[in-house]
């Protein structure tokens, strides 16, 4: 089966169309040595495997606005299971998560939710991609389609792993506020981001002695602001990329701490399957460069509906109403594209 991806890196105008055969990889570790566009889920399963679109054909466009609907030749899937995401369901999940945090079972847990929106007289996939590129110049924008994953549109600010040769980069991005010229961060947001940064530093120490951390600083992502720390490091053995990704993903920014226990708690207690939300995607060793991003601010596009995802980090002092509102604000990233609120 053939897959297609349209992508544009942050702060760039040039976008790439890549098509090729789709391979299912057995694990995160098996990513090493491959070239193409990776689409990885939060939790690999038979229905949501790690996917690789081989870079058989690439075409560059100077600007996303040059793209036309004639480039799209794929049939969208029908959604057979519309979901409701009422506040009552969120309340039930929040109570389970928060009780475990208060008991001291976890330092942090990430609770996500999803909503479905009707898609009558919707813009084409190409038009959605163009709107995302125009609205979010600081984010990584991708439109990906495979028979296994369906169609996903993503506008994400979070790098999981990027680099070439032996020079690499990752980041700790956590904490969320509406963007303003002057953002005042709460203790909860600062602590949440520190958990992520500490985890990444400990993970990198398993692979290199040469790394530097800068931050945290306030970073803008559309109408939102986040706390961001950047890590640059040396990785001499590129065959370790798969092992590093397996160790990093999922970071506490989308999972929790302690990681293994939080990961299994989320799988057991969230009301839905995250699918490819909070996984990662991006070009791997394409033209010598790797740019993998955490799949945030995303939606799956069906023939007659959209499915949007968002989540937020919970600590023991989290307040349900504020956490709910944070997810609403994050969902606006995709809603603004759907309703063309540019």
Comma- or semicolon-separated keywords:
36% strand; alpha+beta; 342 residues; Anthranilate synthase
Structural class, by secondary structure, is: alpha+beta
- The number of distinct β-strands equals 17
Helical segment count: 6
Into which percent range does the helicity of residues fall? 10-25%
Taken from the alpha-carbon principal axes, the silhouette is: globular
Distance N to C terminus: 35 Å
- What is Rg? 19 Å
Q: Assign the CATH class.
A: Alpha Beta
Biggest sheet record: 17 strands, antiparallel
State the order of secondary-structure elements, H for helix, E for strand: EEEEEHEHEEEEHEEHEHEEEEH
- CATH H level, superfamily name: Anthranilate synthase
Low-confidence stretches: none
- Beta-strand level of the residues, as a percent range? 35-45%
Mean pLDDT: 92
Q: Supply the CATH architecture.
A: 4-Layer Sandwich
Q: What number of structural domains do the residues give?
A: 1
CATH topology: Anthranilate synthase
Describe the structure.
By secondary structure, the chain is of the alpha+beta class. It has one domain: Anthranilate synthase, CATH 3.60.120. The protein is built from six helices and 17 strands. It has helices at about 85-100, 125-135, 185-205, 240-250, 260-270, 320-340; strands spanning about 1-10, 15-25, 35-40, 50-55, 55-60, 110-120, 140-145, 150-155, 160-165, 165-180, 210-220, 225-235, 255, 280-285, 290-295, 300, 305-315. It has a 17-stranded antiparallel beta sheet that branches. A hairpin with a 2-residue loop joins strand 11 (about 210-220) and strand 12 (about 225-235). It is globular and about 55 Å long. About 45% of the residues are buried. The mean pLDDT is about 90.
